[in-house]
Write a structure and sequence with these properties.
Elements (H helix, E strand, L loop, with lengths): L2 H17 L4 H17 L1 H17 L4 H7 L3 H16 L7 E6 L5 E8 L2 E6 L3 H13 L3 E5 L5 H17 L7 E3 L5 H8 L7 E5 L2 H10 L12 E5 L5 H13 L8 E7 H17 L3 E4 L1 H6 L4 E2 L2 H5 L6 E7 L2 H11 L4 E5 L3 H10 L4 E4 L19 E2 L7 E2 L6 E8 L7
Parallel strand pairs: 3-4, 3-6, 4-5, 7-8, 7-12, 8-11, 9-10, 9-11, 12-13
Antiparallel strand pairs: 1-2, 2-16, 14-15
Helix pairs in contact: 2-5, 2-7, 3-7, 5-6
Amino acid sequence: MSNEVFEKGQRAKNASLLLNMKTTAEKNNALVAIAAQLQIDRSVIIEANQLDLQQGAENGLSVATLDRIMLNAARIRAMSEAIHLLVELPDPIGEVLENIHKENGLHIVKRRVPLGVIGMIYEARPNVTVDAATLALKTGNAILLRGSSSAKHSNMALVSSIHTALTKADFPLDAVLLIEDTSRETAKALFHLHEFLDVLIPRGGKSLIDTVIREASVPVLETGAGNCHIFIDDTAPFDMVCAIVKNAKTQRPSVCNAVESLVIHRQFLQQYGKEFFAFLQALNISIYGDEAVCQLCKSALPANEEHFAEEFLALCLSIKTVDSVTEAIQHIQTYSTKHSEAILTMTQEHADLFLTMVDAAAVYHNASTRFTDGFEFGYGAEVGISTQKLHARGPMGLPALTSTKYYIYGEGQIRG
């Protein structure tokens, strides 16, 4: 096992015990210090990020990947603002979930407690470094971060800034630790770090997530890839469709809640198809469609199974034509990654059926999938979007980074 992983895992475990004693005020003070320090260190962080971007371009990384890596003054300012929002949120630790008084006099209290030590393995998203660290600190967890080589310098600069802030706030530095060795060996070491990790959270592409789920023996909180669909029903207003699809696809194509596939009712296509495809082409969106789509849109390429299953993370869409909401649901269930799915319709019966039957973490009626986000849901930030059903589902904010403990108070009771 990697010496760095083992040594830092041990340090994080020791820090997690100290964090159990930290008050909400002390944790919030540390968060405020981090928000301020990120602004103080902004030029240093951007300089490190420029090195990652330069190396990424030289290594042939895609435009979408480079966008995920990129940090600028506005994005760093947004990080600080998100931290201040996190400070304002209630501290879930210690929250009483159940209060039971037994006939024998026992008093049983179920409370929220920290998970302990969180391992975070992620790709090409230096903002995750700050989001994960601050969410962990607010919930009294230590965190062991392992980013990708493509954002190594950015992550190191961000953690250095966090450590400066924690020193100023008299907070344990080992509460936030970064594995600087980005080799595959360190990732594999995290998969089996039972001695110190309580949970492992992967955040990145399908390949990374599938690898962690398949190989890790540490408990995994699964975050999912985002093959998100929008079903355009026959009664969907054309202007609303255009506004939502444009937002869901083009606002930030490289993120997991961007729409990747449209499912369109044949009647809508017959009424608005040519106009709609002209609208998509004006947005420079490449289209992979079925036969009906290719007949109406001459620039569309024939779609195959891989296109319908693809998380493009770029200005591309797969488009499927259907004759009913039921057929749309069947198509979505076949290719969905269970992240975010939307229906655009003025038929309430169809909306109700879609929202009930589609199996996803977030389902939308007449709204963009781009809202599946911890900040938008009022969580301040998120450590990822969970597409599983155990422990947490959807944007994982503060409560998702907690467990529970039963406190039992007695006066000498014994069980007969």
